[in-house]
Amino acid sequence: MHDECGVVGITSTENLPLKIYYALYALQHRGQESAGIATYNDRMKLRRGMGLVPEVFTEEDLNSLEGNKGIGHVRYSTSGESKIESSQPLMVTHQKGRLALAHNGHITNSREIRQELEEDGHVFSTGNDTEIMAHLISKYLIKTDDIVTALERSKEKLKGSYAITILIKDKIIGLRDPHGIKPLCYGKHKNGYIIASESAALDTIEAELIGDVEPGEIIVLENQDLKSYKTKQKQKAHCFFEHVYFARPDSIMDGKSNYKCRLQIGKKLGEKYPVPDADLVSPVPDSGITFAIGYSETSGLKYAESLMKNRYVGRTFIMPNQGMREDAVRLKLNAVKPNVKDKEIVLVDDSVVRGTTSKRIIKLLKKAGAKKVHLRVGAPKIISTCHLGIDMANKDQLIAHNSTTEQIKQKIGADSLKYIKINEMLDAMNLNQNELCLGCLNEKYPIKKQDNKTLQTKIKQK
Ligand code: SF4
User: Per-residue b/e over 392-411, b at no fewer than 16 CB within 10 Å?
Assistant: First the structure.
């Protein structure tokens, strides 16, 4: 399962590319394919590149990006190809100037909007839904000469998930989709304001969190002022996976600490699904750590690491052939033998998607001498895919799509397997089901998937 993207927008009375760079560094976990910064001083400047934030920007780049307002982006592609043209911020030039846009999310009716825009004469250079958004907003901006009105009109057209930051000549704008599916928050720093996907980005520049951008809300930063434009919001549906998996544990979302959410879920797992005869509870590093600490607290089991992660296995890691996959797992993870040999282990992970990693880890622990491995999972069973900006496996690759818990237990070789249930997770996080998207768990999505057949018919009818 892959995260989507991270966005940021900052204003300051001082030169700020370094602040944007730090904020992007804090959001690196949300996308590792490309990064970019757009700033404005007397003109708009843009620097984008493939790779991690420190690989993309040199000191020289940051000096040349001089400006006191700007936006930034880290990308993992969910639509469009992984190439420099699709990296963001995306800049478009229109009759009245330039607009740069950084987007996290997925527009479900982008093909339909693109068709309409093409009929109006717009020309596109990528398959990216961000380019379609940028053209749509520019179209209304030319007509109305007011960015807030242009965004309100665009919101009426756009379906899907989006948390965006925009840079136009004299303003930075933040906008969250009417369901608030993707996260976006804002805060104040010494010399201005910041809008970002996660509050951890605010911490890096010593900004104080003001709060979340509300679903459908538009925040405009101009001349050190902040203005908010709210419209009647739709049913809130924030992606629950942000709290338990995607976002950093040190980020605060919807007033909730993600660390506490994970700890409470771990506690609930320990309370509901104990293994009295086990010797220890261990996390799958690093994602299972907070859950395992929580499990240890309520079950009374000793917390000890049974797996050690090699933190230097990076993105460019080469896996020569199928037969070497076992070697690959051993390269990434190694058993801590004194905590494994002849031990009955409760292994805690944040989620199980295809089950292939769980199977390999359990095999590795058993090979290292584990007597029994009981798997406890901090996210409920993932039974369906996501069309709202999370890159998951195909439906039939999801192990829980058409297997019972008992069948999954056998497939992955665990001695016992328990997932947290949806109601138990909500109770642990103290969050209301009506305010979350749980689509991949219960197939109730806030926005319907556009199927290609319907889309083709609609396009033909026009
Ligand atoms: S379907 Fe799942 S992953 Fe996608 S937004 Fe909803 S909860 Fe998040």
Answer: bbeeeebbbbebeeeebbee
Same domain, 385 and 279: yes
Q: Clarify whether residues 44 and 131 are in a common domain.
A: yes
Any domain includes 119 = yes
Task: Note whether 44 and 86 are same-domain residues.
Answer: yes
Residue 461 has pLDDT above 50, yes or no: no
Residue 75 dihedral angles phi and psi, to the nearest 5° = -125, 140
Determine if ligand 1 sits within 6 Å of the CB of residue 390.
Answer: yes
Residue 229 is predicted with a pLDDT of: 97
* DSSP alpha helix (H) spans, 6-146: 17-26, 53-56, 59-64, 110-119, 129-144
Does ligand 1 come within 6 angstroms of the Cβ of 377? no
Question: In this structure, are 171 and 270 located in the same domain?
Answer: no
Gap from CA of 437 to ligand 1 centroid (Å): 6
* Domains held by the chain: number: 2
Mark whether 185 is an active-site residue.
no
How far does residue 462's CA lie from ligand 1's centre (Å)? Answer: 32
Look-up of token digits 């230097």: 312
Domain around 268? 260-310+321-430
Q: Over 90: is that where the pLDDT of 399 sits?
A: yes
